Protein 1
Amino acid sequence: MRRKKIYEGKAKVLFEGPEPGTLVQYFKDDATAFNNQKQGLIAGKGVLNNRISEFLMQKLEEIGIPTHFVRRLNMREQLIREVEIIPLEIIVRNVAAGSISKRLGIEEGTILPRAIVEYCLKDDALGDPMVTEEHITAFGWASPQDLDEMLQLTLRINDFLNGLFLGIGLKLVDFKLEFGRLWEDDQMRIVLADEISPDSCRLWDVATNEKMDKDRFRRDLGKVEEAYQEVARRLGVLPEAGPVDMKPPKVMQ
Ligand code: TMP
Ligand code: ASP
């Protein structure tokens, strides 16, 4: 199938959708870390993240969280609503790991006194710097109302996903969300966008604390593919045929 490419990121490509206001989100196997300094492939990752993100967004829709997700189209693609992405990465932390441990000297694995929300500006050239609400509202990346709405949604998502993952023996250590503005006849709604997957979450096995997410790639821990497959298996979305491949669509010039 021929499709017009709208945008290509590090792990996904967006193509023009079949109807106005829709896009096709294609999941690649490419993996990057540390703002693109480390690059690699995780075989079958795109297939699994497509399923995992589909599953989680559907569950979130069921509890009333609006998302950009419409339906999965095939192994690597899903139909989404076109939104205006708010240029922020919203990070929620339940357990200290990664950059908060480094920055503040908190030992990895320390349970945080409460869920901590951090905002980073989505800007690869600047290395996604952390910003405060002051910066966000002063520079107009989001209004105070938008921020309040995103924070409320984020905390609901965190509570829900904590329980969902705990039910399959995984600790939701931290994760990153992105939101977008969806316009419907002059009315604007903020909806969850992007993806939720082991690329954007830290997930540790409850019994062994084994890392089951992209940290296996970032830190060269091995068994990267296996970790993504295990998360998919526990969620009940591992494709029976395994991550069977499909060719990317031909791009129209
Ligand atoms: P951090 O500890 O590196 O700040 O990451 C916190 C969480 O956010 C972790 O689950 C990974 C996720 N994340 C992304 O999805 N994209 C990013 O660019 C970064 C830096 C983190
Ligand atoms: N995805 C980001 C990058 O490419 C960071 C990360 O997930 O570690 O650099």
Protein 2
Amino acid sequence: MASYRFSVNGAARTVDSSDPDQPLLYVLRNALGLTGTKFGCGLGQCGACTVIIDGDAVRSCITPISAIAGRSVTTLEGLGTPDTPHPVQAAFIAEQAAQCGYCTNGMVMTSAALLARQPDATLNDAKLALAGNLCRCGTHHRILRAVMRAAGRTP
Ligand code: FES
């Protein structure tokens, strides 16, 4: 059993695990109760499990806990609150950019990471950033409008 120390949503956390390959996704959902991060494919293919680690959008289902020791993880819960949502969350609400909502975590987290490093992102930048995030409902147009709204652009 080893202890892994890292930051989650600004708070220091220590998680004990006997498996250094345990996916961060399981740690977040099962050990820390942060269920905003979704299990989709479990294979790094869909993006539903995306979190932000040290500024980068990362797929937590294929990120082993041993790789995040000492790092800073932000989940959907750490992005904003119902009273003070992150601009991307507010834009997704304004544009009603969810249908079933299962992909929304990944869409929001990937978009937030994009706009943090590139606040003036264009529609094409958003398309490229979200190309690997799957939405089976076909809500892409509303999602992209939301990202452009958050970027202060008219889509
Ligand atoms: Fe991680 Fe699909 S659940 S990419």
Protein 3
Amino acid sequence: MNLEALLADRLAAPLAAVAGFPVDPVVRRSQHADFQSAAALALAKRTGRPPWAIATDVAAAASAHLAGLATVRVSRPGFLNVTVDDAVLASAVDDLDDRLGVPPAARPERVVIDYSAPNAAKEMQIGHLRSTIIGDALAQLLGWLGHDVVRANHLGDWGTPFGMLIEHMVELGHDRARHSLGDLTGFYRVARAKFDSDEDFRVRARRRVVALQSGDELSRTLWTQLVEQTERNFLDTYARLGVTLTGGDFVGESFYQERLASVVDDLAARGLLVESEGALCVFPDGFTGRDGEPLPLIVRKSDGGFGYAATDLAAVRHRAGDLKADRLLYVVGAPQRTHFRMVFAVARAAGWLPAAVTAEHIEFGSILGDDGKAFRTRAGDNVRLDDLLDEADSRASSAAVGIGAIKYADLAGDRRSDYVFDWDRMLASTGNTGPYLQYACARIRSIFRRGASEPGPVVLAEPAERRLALALLGFEPAVTAAADLREPHRLAGYLHDLAVAFSAFYETCPVLRSDGATRASRLTLADRTARTLGLGLGLLGIDIPGEM
Ligand code: ARG
């Protein structure tokens, strides 16, 4: 149940009656009452009437509309403070079903979520961690709400580095190449060193790119081996991370290669292509560089090759056109903001993104070290994700706690902000952390292992019981905000508030040491809390360990 919406609905008529025109009640949770509306203050600004007088009139008119649900009181200078009837709260908590009051989406959409997207032939770096965690949380959240989620792992599996890598495989010979692929980072490093130091090798590597792109059989076979090996590595990492991406979700850059020529044709037919210094470009409206010059999106480079932008154009066209998506989400770091704005603008101009289809760049900030700079190893290298997960295993009491801590730390803040990667803080058992929430949930579950008697109807006597009931009924608005704004921290912050409300309740209201109707009611409150925490953390991709 969404109490905010229900109260706003009941307050709309009395507000309109006093104002003489429709007014949005904007009902919010508040420290001072269960809920508060500042509509009378806004109305006072508009009409010049004193806020107190307006609020008093609205409160008088509202009491009939709120009968059986809530009471309203005016507070200075003109707030409407709303207190929900205990009986309403109690029965709403009783009635919470398996979905904890969250109905499936009224209008389900097909949503393509582009996330994780590491680059083949390299091991996954910390740079892909946030996309993987945030993307997977959004995929689970939107899927649970009833949307038809298509996971798109836009693997970087094409382009000039593959010439060098395949040429290196050719030189190693079949057996040794297969063997060295086991250590992809080492393999990449050796190939790179050869490329940098050996002119002949460089020439052969460039020829190899051309061979690969023109379908040469050996090059193709070796490329396939290389990509399959990296996909296996990534799937291992996803399994360790408890991420829902599967092998079937890889739709790498290579997939779009045969579609690029027709992307160029489409753009040409629309008159959007401009030749500039030998390259084919589109200059979408409203994009200028630092010098005020129009900014090009390069579709085909002067050497005839296609780059990152062309592939993304083909991907938009495929997702909106062939996959019939209603919504495209790209969970990619903030530095690619201009890239995506331009890609979306060009796709709209080309007619591939009809007005009914939404495209959004779900951007996020960086992970920093404690020096405030990009997070790196002590030696200054990129942090390998597998090393990070090894460290999580060794620092935490179990994999679920270590992974949960990493994921929660990533999801708990506004995704647009940078954050400092700090093991001690993310693993702390108090504060807004994964372990704190996992522990809260596990502790409540253990009440049920110890207690025999059945939960029963909720009766609200103590203030802490009432606050817990109110908190429980906040799940739906939190889930809705997280999904609509694509901001998992809305859900994370809610779950933390709920755990805090439970802990205040648990301190003042004995559960197993009470009896009769009180005990039954408290067991229901505890049950709903455990279920809400379990479901909410699950939607964020965080497991609850059985014992902590
Ligand atoms: N592989 C890219 C990188 O590592 C991310 C791809 C994001 N998705 C996309 N459709 N461009 O930066």
